[in-house]
Each structure stands twice: as C-alpha cells, then as structure tokens.
Write a structure and sequence with these properties.
Blueprint: H1 5-14, H2 16-19, E1 21-26, E2 31-38, E3 41-52, H3 55-58, H4 61-64, E4 72-77, E5 86-88, E6 93-95, H5 110-113, H6 116-127, H7 131-139, H8 144-157
Parallel strand pairs: 3-4, 4-5
Antiparallel strand pairs: 1-2, 2-3, 5-6
Helix pairs in contact: 6-7, 6-8
Length: 169
C-alpha cells in the first residue's frame, strides 16, 4: 500500500498516460489540482490527497473542506462511502459520488461489518445517508448498546473536534 503523500502523487503522475488523470499543480497543504480527461470529459478538479478515503471523515473534512472548493479525493485506498468523486490511485479507478469499492450489500454480514474495512464502510455509508446502511442499522438485531455506540461514532464524525485541522486551504 502507498503510505505517503509523495508515493501517492508519484503513482498518479506515472499512470497519467493510461488513466487520463494528470497532476497540474501541487497546492498548499494536501490540496492539488488535477485534470481528468476521459472520453468527452475534460475537466479540472480541486482535490485533496489522503491515504485512505475514510480519512475524509477522520480529519472532519466533510465539515469544512467543501467550503474551500474541494471537488475530488485522491487516495491510495478507497474504503468508505463518500459523497465526492474518489480517484483511487492503487486501483487506477474513479468512483462516482456514493460509489464504493465494496458493495453495500456486504454490510448485512456481521463478520464483514466487524472488520476494519466493514466498519469504515458502515460508518461512511451512515454519514453519507445511504439507505442500505440505515436498513442494516434498523433491521439487524444489534444490542442497544452497540446501536448507540455506532450512532455516537457517527455523531462524533459529524462534529468538529478540538485541535489543528488538516491543511487543505
């Protein structure tokens, strides 16, 4: 897996010819500007570079980064549901808004939901208001304490936390 911002950007630049995504400039902080050329689509995007797409929620970028004009996420691993297009560098694939690399139907499996990938997918789907996630939360016989813990975690990712923010502006 790609671990650093430098590795993600070098992989993005090396695959620019085959994928149609090219780096135009490296902005301040974790912000970049990319050009996506695919078929008739030729558009500039303001993007943020993250290690995993779940970092969008972990750093609370869902609360303040869209005000700064962030239109796309460039990440090494796409592991959650985000309401922005996501360019996964390791898979060389663009995911549309709300699209995930793992189908949301897998959330009904308790073993998958208990894994890190399943948990990130579940929390991200709840934060992006996916009906499949709410169906799992209400239809599955969670113990009350587990349901309250999940709802508390969703509320915590939906509010700002004290401390320094990830620099994207």
């Amino acid at each position: 897996m790609l671990h650093t911002r430098h590795q993600i950007l070098s992989m993005l630049q090396s695959s620019a010819v085959t994928t149609g995504v090219s780096l135009l400039n490296d902005g301040p902080g974790h912000r970049i500007r990319i050009q996506y050329q695919r078929g008739r689509l030729d558009r500039l995007f303001e993007a943020v570079v993250l290690r995993r797409s779940f970092d969008w929620y972990r750093y609370r970028l869902n609360l303040y980064a869209q005000l700064g004009g962030i239109e796309m996420i460039v990440c090494a691993a796409h592991d959650t549901c985000v309401m922005l297009p996501v360019w996964c560098v390791s898979e060389a694939q663009v995911y549309n808004e709300g699209e995930t690399s793992i189908p949301l139907t897998r959330l009904s499996d308790p073993a998958f939901r208990g894994s890190r990938a399943g948990h990130h997918l579940f929390i991200g789907a709840l934060l992006s208001s996916q009906p499949a996630a709410f169906d799992v939360l209400t239809a599955t016989s969670f113990p009350r304490s587990t349901r309250y813990r999940i709802q508390a975690k969703v509320r915590s990712y939906a509010t700002l936390r004290p401390g320094n923010r990830l620099k994207v502006m």
